[in-house]
Fold this sequence. Notes:
CATH architecture of the largest domain: 3-Layer(aba) Sandwich
Radius of gyration: 21 Å
Amino acid sequence: MPPRTPKYQAIADDLSSKIRDGELSPGSTLPPQKELSSRYGVTLATLRQALKQLEDQGLLSQEPGRGTFVYPRASYELTSLRGFAEDLREQGQTVTTEIIDQSTGTPPPWAADRLGEGPSTCLERVRLVAGRPAVHQVSWVRGTDLSGADMSATSLYAALGLHGHLAHRASEVVRPGLLEEPVAGYLRRPPGEPVMLSERVTYALDDAVLVVDRATMLGSAMEIRTERAANGLSLQWSRPS
């Protein structure tokens, strides 16, 4: 006889199927754990084992005091030269953008060191995945061409291309960090929560710096994924300075 499927696994399989089939939509909230355990006829411990498995798989997000949310974890692809929203939409995620700031001025030192002198455009955005904040991003763009562009539904790279600035390559460092204010407020999470911090420099065809980015990604919402081949992606691992 084939081995019996553990109860927690049967629950995880059922919920996973409902998520993938769209019966449980991204952003929706699961019923309270007591209600779910009664519905499946199992103990709370068994139910929590199933929910933990789905959370580890990136299909659920359990938030103490708030509940359990259907929140398929989005993958940030290190192998592509695209913006966050483009990566996520290609994976079938529902992505919206909130513009916090779009203005021209003098970049702060961390961006000015790369962009050099002259006015630049600051674009500060929050990316929402399935209606919930997932990424906070500050981009300093060389020049003022994008100061009046509608960036709520347009990729930064696409907007640059429309103005004759083609992105050729980018260098990026992603490291662990802790959520700080005011970004914690924008992402609606408590300060001190573990996050991933990205710093990206994008270059034009002539190797001039086009954009300097800093992004904060919620670890509960994002995962980093790469594809490796013998002659493909090269990753460098180093100790943070």
